[in-house]
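Work package 3, deliverable 3.1, input record:
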Amino acid sequence: MALKGDLHRSPIAHRYFWERVRDAVNDFTGSSPSRFAILVFTFLILVFTLLFSLPIATNSGERAELADAFFTAVSVICVTGLATVDMASHWSLVGHIFVYIGVQIGAVGVLTLASILGLVISRRLGLRAKLIAASDSNPLRAHHGPVSESQAVRLGEVGNLLVTVALSLVVIEAGVAALLFPRMLIDGIPLWDAIWNSFYYSAMAFTNTGFTPNAEGLARFENDYWFLSILMIGVFLGAVGFPVIYALQKQLLKPRLWSLHVKLTVVTTVLLLFMGALAFIILEYNNPKTFGTLNASDTIFQSLFLSMMTRSGGFATIDIPDLNGSSLLVADMLMFIGGGSASTGGGIKVTTLAVLFLSAVAEAKGNPDMEAFGRRIPGDVSRVAVSVVLWGATIVAVSTVTLLHITKASLDYVLFDVISAFGTVGLSTGLTGDLPESGKYVLGLTMLLGRVGTVTLAAAVAASQTSKLFRRPEERPIVG
Amino acid sequence: MALKGDLHRSPIAHRYFWERVRDAVNDFTGSSPSRFAILVFTFLILVFTLLFSLPIATNSGERAELADAFFTAVSVICVTGLATVDMASHWSLVGHIFVYIGVQIGAVGVLTLASILGLVISRRLGLRAKLIAASDSNPLRAHHGPVSESQAVRLGEVGNLLVTVALSLVVIEAGVAALLFPRMLIDGIPLWDAIWNSFYYSAMAFTNTGFTPNAEGLARFENDYWFLSILMIGVFLGAVGFPVIYALQKQLLKPRLWSLHVKLTVVTTVLLLFMGALAFIILEYNNPKTFGTLNASDTIFQSLFLSMMTRSGGFATIDIPDLNGSSLLVADMLMFIGGGSASTGGGIKVTTLAVLFLSAVAEAKGNPDMEAFGRRIPGDVSRVAVSVVLWGATIVAVSTVTLLHITKASLDYVLFDVISAFGTVGLSTGLTGDLPESGKYVLGLTMLLGRVGTVTLAAAVAASQTSKLFRRPEERPIVG
Ligand SMILES: [K+]
Ligand SMILES: [K+]
């Protein structure tokens, strides 16, 4: 008894205690990184639900309804950009600052978590993967030197990653804001408004959120191609993913040195951008409500902008319900695919689609292996991709059926807003603003599962690889 | 010269000629069974387009419009059951006989082709698969004895299969008709009408077509649970697939002896039947237009019937547009999945879904292999499944976007009719009947690609397996 009492007061005992806390955290992040990610996001959403429930957060000075505070918190932390209230008029300046801070935390959170999960996967995949992970071109390594033998991700590494991610975010957002700022001054916006708006727009672009600080939204800038182009660059950098940014920053002009992941992400993103734009041009060029009144070059630019925003940016220069039903469905598909891995973009991720496609190509050619850019992709990667797509399709299906039943609205609109939530895109047909309370919770949950689910699922299934001592006899069912 | 001339006239020369024709046919069916399947279906559709273009085929005695003749021919040969005209009033008795004969040819055709393709796959997969193929439980073998070493499917085997399939079809349809006939007499239908109607309904059930011979359709029998139950059995037998029928007929009461394919098909089909029915009960029990006026047991029965018909049967006791949007989407998913492999049912097939699901389960558990019922499923099967789903999703997406653009109709209805066409189901929201000419060709093509595509794609990709002499260096992209 006396001994224990002494220990509790001694510095050594304190060190023991903190070491045990640290070990417990390490064990938890290392042994169940997916659960850790879900906990972090849920905690952040609770905090921001509380913040948005404060009377000072609203313009009216009255407490926001719980469903709206919750929905806004999820939308901000998951960097979605959907809203059940009119963002510009409902929230006070304090509320808008919460939004601004929230999307930054959400963006740093998702980039860091995705990168940690990437690290965990690399560790678990054993020596071969470790050698790859040790190469200089892997951005998931926070510092150089031999890779640790331990399988757990230590707190120090998490800290390093957090700092690297946060620094990148600050640098890129400052750069985008610096490009937006003079344009706003030229457009005659007052100095302080221009500063606040350029930082706000910059954050909303790089974090792929898509909220606008001003009441009239992007309509003010819809013909300002300089402004819109900078937004597109911000959205592209956010959506392409941290590993790709890291590689581009080091080897922008040496694409031969890019890793397979970087090549796949860039090629698929660019292909989707142009194919999406082409589809929108064909389907909307004679729609009087959208591009029907524009000339050819304006139609091309606005189609490219719309295509890029479905990557998960969520800014819009047109009213979404004005689009033809066919364009809505094309947008649905683009939003479902989403951005790059370990990015602020959502969806199943462009590499997931690319791997599925490569898998089908390998089958069609009769190759036993998937191949791309002179590299062989292991077969288990395609199984992870299948899991992610099944997960995504299931969430979208269940959420769509539920919201169809709650709202009795048309499938065109329900599917669009559900996929926009799942892919954390933030474009809306207007359905989200008209949801009853139960619908707000359903769509909020869809965002959370879309955001955390795809990131952690891939890690969880890839990390759980075990080898088996025996194999069962083989038998081949007929498919198709 | 003289020698050649002699040969041309001699019996030996004739034998040479016929042997060369036979070899050419063998080469073609063996080397490119998918192209063969597409040619057969295209040929049948051309013939039936001509038949439906004959003035004697219509009630009015006037030549049907080409788009309608083509659409009806595709719908009949692909055993879909969609119609751009009012089937009961538009076609004469001759026209209806063409329909009756057409669905039989279509059903025998698809069952035989799918089985031939199964044979080709088995041959190509080498000795291990051959040993499996040699086992008594494999229905794809037309007769017993050691498996031929040749990789091509010989004409004789095709003939044997054709006979086996046609015999099964005649026996099952006669059985179903014999069960329907007394019921029709009891219902007060005149003798000759009862005979014709019972054979017609029986054929439409087993071939999973879903046309009705009488003007008022199934409405006459909507409360006749004996009649509807027999239809369900007919549809189930057709949709479950020829390999399963073969196994059930031999080992109905010894499920332990069933092959993996049979077990997977039966379990998935039954699960989908009950899960679909449960969803329809939940979503429709209080819909006054559908099941709202029914008592509990009627609601359960009608939900089971609707769920079974989305398997690809296509009969309906309710008006599809009366369903809630949520139920339409559930039906979309069930129709997309469709029936069993080598069946008259359509869609991506239940085993394809099962394999994708097992692949995700294996990933989640960290197993390197997919397992089911104590058997290991080779990894390339899941890649074939991915190819089939990608193919199906692409057809449905392109067709839906095109028809949305042509008709400007609501996505609820367009997606339903497109998936109904792709899955050769034949249920309709009414959109098909209102299509403009271009839309009829788009939907007709959707049916053909859905019918031939999934069957041949799986065979084509599975048959093209080659081994490689070198493997490229491995690299792992991040997915999800
Ligand atoms: K967004
Ligand atoms: K059908």
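Strands of chain A lie at 370-372, 375-377.
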